[in-house]
Amino acid sequence: MIDIKLLRSNPEMVKENLRRRFEDTGIVDEILEYDMLWRRTLKDIESLRHLRNQKSLEIGKLVKKEKDVGPLKEEMRNINTKIKTLEVDMENYKNMRDTLLMRLPNMLMEDTPICEGEENSPVLRTWGVAKVLGEMVESFKKHAPGMKYNVITQRATSHVDILEKYDLADISRAAKVAGARFYYLKNQLVLLELSLLRFALDKMVKKGYVPVSPPLMLRHTAMEGVTDFSAFEEMIYKIEGEDLYMIATAEHPLVAMYMNEILDERDLPIKYVGVSPCFRKEAGAHGKDTKGIFRVHNFYKVEQVIFSKPEDSPKFMEELIDNAEDIMRALKLPYRVINICSGELGAVAAKKYDIEVWMPAQQKFREVVSCSNCLEYQARRLKIRYRKGNELQYVHTLNSTALATTRTMVGIIENYQEEDGIRIPEALVPYTGFDFISFS
RNA sequence: GCCGGGGUAGCCAAGUGGACUACGGCGCCAGCCUUGAGAGCUGGUCCCCAUACGGGGGCGGGAGUUCGAAUCUCCCCCCCGGCGCCA
Known about the structure:
Helix 3 runs antiparallel to helix 4. The protein has two domains: about 5-105, Orthogonal Bundle (Helix Hairpins), CATH 1.10.287; about 120-440, Bira Bifunctional Protein, Domain 2 (BirA Bifunctional Protein, domain 2), CATH 3.30.930.10. By secondary structure, it is α+β, with helices and mostly antiparallel strands. The protein has helices spanning about 5-10, 10-20, 25-65, 70-105, 135-145, 160-165, 170-175, 190-205, 220-225, 230-235, 250-255, 315-330, 375-380, 405-415, 430, and strands spanning about 125, 130-135, 150, 170, 185, 210, 215-220, 245, 260-265, 270-280, 300-310, 335-340, 350-360, 365-375, 385-390, 390-395, 395-405, 415-420, 420-425, 435-440. The strands form six sheets. Strands 1-12-13-14-17-11-10-6 form an eight-stranded mixed sheet. The chain has a three-stranded mixed sheet with strand order 9-15-16, with no helix packed on it. The chain binds one RNA strand of 87 nucleotides through helix 3, helix 4 and strand 9.
């Protein structure tokens, strides 16, 4: 949430921010209009309440002297009626203002590129060696300037085919019992999934992050604090008949953890690594990645979350993305890091890096990691503050994938293919206990 | 799920219908004092409106009774204890 005081004092700045996100600016004036009405009504109410308080004291004194207070009481009833009427208006104005305010996206950081379209997000760096089809080389070079590659003559087999053919997953039966975008993992893939989770967790714990296994459902107030409005429509599952929502990432329960709390300055930074299943409706994704396990309704993810002092959050964002890259490098998956265009950013993030792994079957880079600095946007919604000297300040919150199982497995299946099976990345072998998934 | 006890500011804690301006303590911040630290003293330390003077609201959340509610009533949430159920 944006500070209403910023809107009052500098609406043009907020409008400019919306323009940079390629969004309509009308909402700013709308909010200010309701804010003005709210303040005006509040003032009227407060002067009436002042009057009430004075009269009430007077009545108290008169009652003690056993004098008649009948007429005064009558007057009070009138005042109270007036207040009640005005209070209804005031509530309406305030609700209108706050509902709109909650929809206003975060202020962008200065180094968020101003552009539209995911394909225009600048590439910050690349790592590893990509397997590129001869006819795709020119396009590859455009998408990953300077990145090393080997030319291959035959496209790698899609993970979708490998999964079903070699009994590593049963997607059609999952569709029978649950619908599209579900899956049964089987055999060594189950062990690979668990190995990936533990591998990523171990890496993060070594770096001083505190491991957390969070609640998988949240109340509306908590969820509303961490996500934007559209997420409820497009992403979040609701439990019928209860005030509970399934988490779409461990970021949600981890960030909401300190809702309505005041931290001490010396508690910061707080660094968590969460591990949890993630549940997503994928409502806005009809027709995209309809097969396989790339885009699914539930998967496991290891997630990093940091609560920091405002001045430290840019530094920690670099730390988070480096942690995630470190995991990709350990798995030897070729990737690029992009700085997401302002036009593609969600409402909550002020800046976002994605890691995209090169997928040799698709001959494309695909997102496997997302790293965001949310500044004080979530903290303000959730009232997470810390005491700095004598004043209270909002913390900054940051989050980043450490490792998401399904997409990472797709990356491994497509990048580690050999004639007769899938090689297991060396770093994982101590966890899996096997180094090869054989096709025979 | 049932019965009982509880929830007051960052923490502890008093207050059970009108002098509550929510007592007091701890912690924290600023100033005085000190060579420095500590102790001591003074002031400050929830939110909102207002440039300010000032005003309004806050006692787990919401609704109500009353001229007036931390205090009385109802609903909900959470914590502690006991009983029941359960992987």
